[in-house]
Amino acid sequence: MRWDGNSWQGVGGFVGSVLTMVKMNGDLYVAGSNIKVNGIDAGNIARGDGTAWSSLGEGTDKRVNALAVSGTDLYVGGFFDRAGGTAAENYMYHVSRRDGSTRNRLRTQSEIGVGTTVYSLAVHGTDLYVGGTFGSVSGVTVNGITQWDGTGWSPLGSGLNNTPFTMLVDGDVQIGGSLGGQAGQPLELAVNGLRAMRFEDNGDSIDISSVPDGAPTVIGGSPANFVASGVVGATIVGGGATEFNQVAAPNSVLADYGSVLGGLDNIAGGFAATAMGQSTRASGESATAMGFSTSASGDYSTAMGRKAKANHAGTFVWADSQNAVLGLYSPNSGNWGSAVVLGETAFLAGTTSGSGSHLRFTFGTDANYAANDAQMRIEPNGDVRADGAFIGGGADVAESFDVEGNHTDYEPGGVLAISTESDGHLVKSTESYSTLVAGVHATKPGVLLTDRGIEADLSGQVPLGGGGVIPHKFCLEGGPIQRGDLLVSSSKPGHAMKGHPNLIRVGTENLFPETE
């Protein structure tokens, strides 16, 4: 775009990402990446004479970051290893020079190559100043900025510790680039005179003593936030308070690579630990504490919610406690993998000494759930153990069985007999005083037993009542029925009747006969 003093005007004829431009002898040179002239690839650099755009021969094979003019010579710097169709020596040279005598060609000048990416160029008199990511040029240590006098390279003092992305030379050399402080000194950003962000390098990690890792520490948020001396790779994203409810509440990191992601009064005290929320403590290695007043002291543990405590290695605890600090059951004898605490109810999964792995539900009132607190647990083999009674929604205990015919033909309260046709099957009783009677079709089982496992489909079976209150279907075939009368099967299918003691026989048929 061009500003003519009153408005912006488009400059047509080419497309691409323009990163730099200069004027030389009345012509405008633009460069960057993916520049095309009249639909033809211009090799990342093009020239406009006011009426039309043209390419400079083959241009460069990669991005151009900077242009500079000295008389009739054009200097080109960037990230490329070919210019004007010629390969530079030593892998890549990032400064090329266009000889003014060759108007539309770009030729490399290998003697002024710097060997790595160039971001800025400037000319003062006959000297060329180059800025980039290089540390040395032709054996001369220059640290990111250097001067070419036509015959050799010279350093500018001790150089820079940051990359100069733009440069102006008017007697003094002025640069602009990425933010950074002097070598060995922290960099701070302030808002209204108060520190809002601090970047520092506290040296090598204590855990990697032989190889400096250079991991910087970042401290954001309240000026009261801090990282312990000697800690590297730490991050405090923000939050913290100089004073909260009349008490200092900073966020802090006490070990290498720890992080506090926000909130206040949080401490990441373990190696590579993470804390966030309010008053959380992550003191285990690679531990995570999130929420309110949570504590993750076990290595690789996680505590979330309110007042959860993950005290053992690899445990996960989530809690919503309102009043008590809740953690894991039996901390000295268990190695729990996870727990969820709701109020004063804990759901735990893991192992305890002598009992193997299991899922435990614990109900208690103290911090760590004493062994005498009420419990229920599920064993790996499916056994369920509980300290209290089971109170279900049904009225009886039943066992599920296959039946002859369609199960929909059977009704609750019906008298069921052992099938003589199929082992393990039941049928409706059809004989008076039958010795094959197995029981009654349960109406509303509170407990349903089966030997098929919890995933089995029992929809085609019927429940045979084994105890509890079980309504019966009956008829008057044996006479009126009074309280205390003995009931037996009748000839009416599935119905009971009053039985007479002298007619009752003891059944000997097995539901599952032994196979000889």
Report on the architecture of this protein.
The protein is built from no helices and 51 strands. The model is unreliable at 88-95, 107-111, 204-212 and 323-335 (pLDDT under 50). It folds into 3 domains: 2-177, Neuraminidase; 187-386; 396-503, Virus Head Decoration Protein, Chain: A, CATH 2.40.300. The radius of gyration is 43 Å and the shape is elongated. 0% of the residues lie in helices and 44% in strands. It is an all-beta fold and 516 residues long. The strands form 12 sheets. Strands 22-23-24-26-30-32-34-36-38-39-40-41-42-43 form a 14-stranded mixed sheet, with no helix packed on it. The protein starts with a strand and ends in an 18-residue tail after the last strand.
In short:
With 516 residues, this protein is mainly β.
Question: Which properties best describe this structure?
Answer:
Virus Head Decoration Protein, Chain: A, 6-stranded parallel β-sheet, 0% helix, elongated, 516 residues, Neuraminidase, 14-stranded mixed β-sheet, mainly beta, 51 strands, 3 domains
Taking the sheet with the most strands, its summary is: 14 strands, mixed
User: Quick one: how many beta strands?
Assistant: 51
**Total count of helical runs of at least 4 residues:** 0
Poorly predicted regions are 88-95, 107-111, 204-212, 323-335
The oligomeric state is single chain
